[in-house]
Amino acid sequence: MSLTAIALNCTLSPSPSDSSTELLAQQVLDELADHGVTGSMVRVVDHDVRPGVEMDMGDGDEWPSIREKVIASDILVLATPTWMGQHSSVCQRVLERLDAELSEKDEQGRLLTYGKVAVVVVVGNEDGAHHISAIAFQGLNDVGFTIPAGGVTYWNGEAMSGTDYKDLEGTPDSVASTTRTLAGNAAHLAGLLAATPYPPTEQA
Fold first, then answer.
1. Is 55 exposed, middle or buried, given 0-12, 13-18 or 19+ CB atoms closer than 10 A?
2. Using an 8 Å Cβ cutoff, are 89 and 12 in contact?
């Protein structure tokens, strides 16, 4: 079964700036590729994603084209840096725009996000990864995504230091192991859901 993944990189830094968030998100996509999953990435800040909770906020809003990639994929990788112990404002905007999925259903009453797996990536040189993943998991599940076991990989640097993930000489073994587990579980769950969809939620 052919599976696809889309990573939404919610860094605050526009291209072509280096991004620790992109580095770890790409490592997730690379691990997913080992399970036959084809992946791509979007740096959200490079696009004019308007504030709001509608499918299309009009006037040049670029969220609809990003949403198309999300809906076409089996796995969503939501990747965010840590700022002041919180997920980025770009990540919050993505979650807010995904709220519109609550109004989109198939002919059997299921949200279009049902059957899609979501995982979370967090980087930062301060604490906050567990808090951020908890917020993201709840938001993603609210709008229909399924979270696999071990659904987050993260790196927290030493508090109050200036070292970023992209500055490390290599990937820490614990991060690499967690990323591999995340990818394997996400691909496994996505395959199961693609083969056996959730039951109808309304009478056809």
1. middle
2. yes
**Contact call for residues 118 and 182 (beta carbons, < 8 A):** no
Buried b (16+ CB within 10 A) or exposed e, 152-186: bbbbbbeeeeeebbeeeeeeeeebeebbbbbbbbb
Within-domain flag for 203: no
Q: Tell me the pTM.
A: 0.96
> Which domain range does residue 147 map to?
3-195
Domain count, the chain: 1
Is 204 among the domain residues? no
Which residue in this structure is represented by tokens 């290599």?
A: 170
Domain of 145, CATH number, reads 3.40.50.360
CA atoms of 40 and 203, how far apart (whole Å):
36
Task: Give pLDDT tens digits for 43-78.
Answer: 999 999 999 999 999 999 999 999 999 999 999 999
CB 23 within 8 A of CB 166: yes
Cα–Cα dist 120/28, whole Å: 10
Residue with tokens 């040049």: 60
Is residue 202 situated within a structural domain? Answer: no
* Among 86, 13, 17, 73, CA closest to 41: 73
Q: Decide: 65 and 30 in contact? Cβ < 8 Å.
A: no
Asked whether residue 201 is assigned to any structural domain, the reply reads: no
